[in-house]
User: Which sequence fits this backbone?
């Protein structure tokens, strides 16, 4: 009898992998029931519980793969409104410690979020050639609001990494949602601007013929066009540039996203470099949560560094999330002019996000 049960479970498990169900929430529940048996058999390594919302997308899939490889992750929840059974089955075969579970559709959002330490949000639509990040506002604002309502209810103490564009507005949207729910903690909501830093390090290294891993470029402001402000005067190790190099680098860093959107010619925006950057940033958040010292990264957060309520700058990550926000440091004349332009555009984007929730 017991043998029969075991055989049935084994057969349904194989069937579920060969033919993942995507035809309804009930089926997905049955499917994830089978799935969890699989996960438990592997055993979870000690670590953090991480959810990716938008896990079946262009960023979500490689991000899920890289997070499954992260030894700090013990449980990985993959949530999307489409295709999570397939992505989950695929990722779950990787022989790393994290247990992977898939969740499909709004009805499973709360299960996906309950108990999470870190939630990463790459859900939403990406840019096509000719679009600005702000053109995505109408769709992505609603998606981020719904997902943050879920987080406020199910894991209000989680660190939230927001990737969905326009980041300059989606972070204020998230803050407003948490305020409404009475669970706002500005230390826990971080807009991911890491890709700007990753690009800056790469392009600077190219100009200087150095290894990009040796370069640390602060990028402040926000995450769109002129709001992306690389502080080339503060690069570590210190280096100097001609004015022509400064203009070339600033322009390329500010338009790195558009470079990819145009090269992809209608099939989306940066996904692979973004997944890399998101994992680099998420790993820093997890190391902070673990209590590691001196975890410093740039991020777009609630801030008093300027007169604006949100601003990207270097922050120190720790057990409480953002534990310290560093001032901008000395800027040269070119950077000061850039800062004024950035602030002007950022102010409008922040207001747009706040009004979206308050209206
Ligand atoms: N912060 C950055 O540096 C940065 C860089 C690149 C892209 N992005 C942004 O990331 C977002 C995702 O980009 P992508 O290329 O992965 O797009 P994509 O279209 O390939 O994937 C988005 C995924 O989100 C899912 N989704 C849509 N609505 C959802 C909802 N309500 N709940 C859960 N999931 C939902 C979709 O089903 C899809 O799988 C875009 O907004 C893009 O502009 C940000």
Assistant:
């Amino acid at each position: 009898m017991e043998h029969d049960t075991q055989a049935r479970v084994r057969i349904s498990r194989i069937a579920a992998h060969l033919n993942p169900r995507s035809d309804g929430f009930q089926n997905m529940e049955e499917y994830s029931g089978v799935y969890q048996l699989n996960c438990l058999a592997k055993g979870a390594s000690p670590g953090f519980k991480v959810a990716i919302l938008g896990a079946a997308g262009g960023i979500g899939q490689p991000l899920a793969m890289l997070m499954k490889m992260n030894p700090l992750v013990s449980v990985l929840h993959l949530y999307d409104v489409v295709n999570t059974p397939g992505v989950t089955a695929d990722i779950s075969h990787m022989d790393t410690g994290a247990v992977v579970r898939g969740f499909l559709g709004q009805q499973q959002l709360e299960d996906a979020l309950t108990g999470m330490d870190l939630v990463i949000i790459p859900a939403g639509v990406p840019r096509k050639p000719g679009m600005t990040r702000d053109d995505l506002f109408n769709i992505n604002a609603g998606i981020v609001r719904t997902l943050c309502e879920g987080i406020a209810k199910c894991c209000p103490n989680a660190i939230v990494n927001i990737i969905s564009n326009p980041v300059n507005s989606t972070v204020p949207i998230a803050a407003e949602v948490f305020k409404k729910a009475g669970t706002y903690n500005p230390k826990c909501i971080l807009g991911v601007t890491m890709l700007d830093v990753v690009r800056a390090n790469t392009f600077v290294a190219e100009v200087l013929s150095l290894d990009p891993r040796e370069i640390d470029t602060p990028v402040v402001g926000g995450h769109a066009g002129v709001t992306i402000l690389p502080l080339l005067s503060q690069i570590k190790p210190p280096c100097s540039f001609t004015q022509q190099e400064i203009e070339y680098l600033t322009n390329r860093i500010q338009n790195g996203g558009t470079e990819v959107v145009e090269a992809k010619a209608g099939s989306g925006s940066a996904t692979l470099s973004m997944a890399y950057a998101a994992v680099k940033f998420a790993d820093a958040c997890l190391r902070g949560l673990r209590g590691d010292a001196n975890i410093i990264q740039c991020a777009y957060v609630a801030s008093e560094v300027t007169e604006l309520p949100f601003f990207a700058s270097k922050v120190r990550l720790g057990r409480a999330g953002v534990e310290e926000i560093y001032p901008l440091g000395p800027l040269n004349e070119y950077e000061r002019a850039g800062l004024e332009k950035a602030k002007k555009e950022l102010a409008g984007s922040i207001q747009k996000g706040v009004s979206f929730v308050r209206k």
